Amino acid sequence: MKAVVVGGGIIGTMHAVLAIEAGHEVVQIERDPRPLSASIRNFGLVWVSGRAAGPELEIALRARQLWEEIGSKAKIGFRAQESLTIAQNESEFEVMKAAALMPDAHSRGFKLLDRNQVQAHEPVLQGKFVGALQCAQDAAVEPSLLFSGLREYLSSSPLYTWKPNFEVVDFYHDETGNHVTDINGNKVSGDLMVICPGSAHQGFLAEFLEGAPLRRVHLQMGATVPFGASLNHSIADADSMRYYPAFKDLPLDTLAPQEPIAAAYKMQLLLVPRLDRTFTIGDTHEYEEPFTHEILEAPYDHLRSVISAIFGAPAPAIARRWSGNYSQMTNGDLYYRRELAPGAVVVTGGGGRGNTISPAIAEETINSWPQ
Predict the structure, then answer these.
(1) Packing angle of the helix pair 354-368, 55-71 (nearest 10 deg)
(2) How far apart are CA 58 and CA 45, in angstroms?
(3) What digits encode the pLDDT tens for the residues 183-205?
C-alpha cells in the first residue's frame, strides 16, 4: 500500500523507516529543504533511565531495541553510551540508593557507583561528588548525522520518495484515499497517511487539534568547543531526578533546594559527548507562551558551573547556543494520536521523550495499518 508521511522530523522519519521495512511504498513530505526544527536541536539521547514506571518504561525499552537495530543499518552515530547521574553530596546519593532499589531498576540497567567506581569508568571526573547512578540502557545518536544517515538508508529502497519544500495547507479524504495539497495546489495522495507536525499545532491542523491536551515547550541548549579528553558516558546532575518521572516516588524532598537560577528556568544538567569531542549541554524549560525570543546567558553560566564542579576543572567554552520548541501532552498520555479519516492519523506530543520513543511510536502506527 502507498503511505504518505507528512513531516521530516524524527517521529515522521521513523514512520517512514518502519513503513518501508514493512513493505509499503512511502512518500515523505517536509515543508523545509531539510528538517530544521526540534529533532535537530536536541541531545540525540535515547534516555531510558528517566522514564516513568509502567507503559512509559516499556515503550522506551522497546524503542531502545529498535534504535540499536536501526543504528546497525543506518549511519546515525548510534552507540550504547551509558549515563551517569552524579551525586554531588550525600543527600543526592541517598536518593540514588533508593533509585537503585526500585522494582524496575534492573530493567533500566541501574547500578549505584561510589566515587572510586565512577572514576574507574571516567578518570576525567575529578571534581566534588560522592558517587553516581549508572544506567546501562541509555544510548545516544548524533543529531548532525541522524537525518542524513536515515535518508541515505531510506533512499536505498526503490519504495521511498523524499519530497522536501512541500508545505501542506490542506488535507482531505475521499473514496480514492487521503490527500494533502500545498499552496500551489500540488497534491500528494496515498492509501495511508500519517501527519507528524511536531510543535506546529496551527495551520491546516488547527481544527483537528482544537481542544487536544497539547502544549508547546520552549528550551535552550548549547554546544561546547572540543574537550581535550575522552568521555564515554552521558552526564546528568541530581536536578534531573526532579524532572524525570522515574524518580517521582523517591524522597526528593530530602534534596537541598535548587539553585535559584535552576529553579526559575526548571533546569537540569544533561551533557552528551559527541563524536567530535564537543559536548551538547542543557537545558531549560519554559511552558507559558509567548516564549522569549532571547538566548539568555544566566542558564549557561549555571550549567558551566555545575560542569566545572563535577569535572574539577573549568568547563569548556560554549561555541553555540540555540533554542527550540517541542510538543508535549498535558494529560499524562505518552503521545497524541488521532484518526483524521480512514487510514489517516496525526501523531505528535511526544514531549521531551519524543526522540527516545520515536521508533516505538512509529511501530504502533504501522502495526495498526492493514497488511
Answers:
(1) 90
(2) 17
(3) 999 999 999 999 999 999 999 99
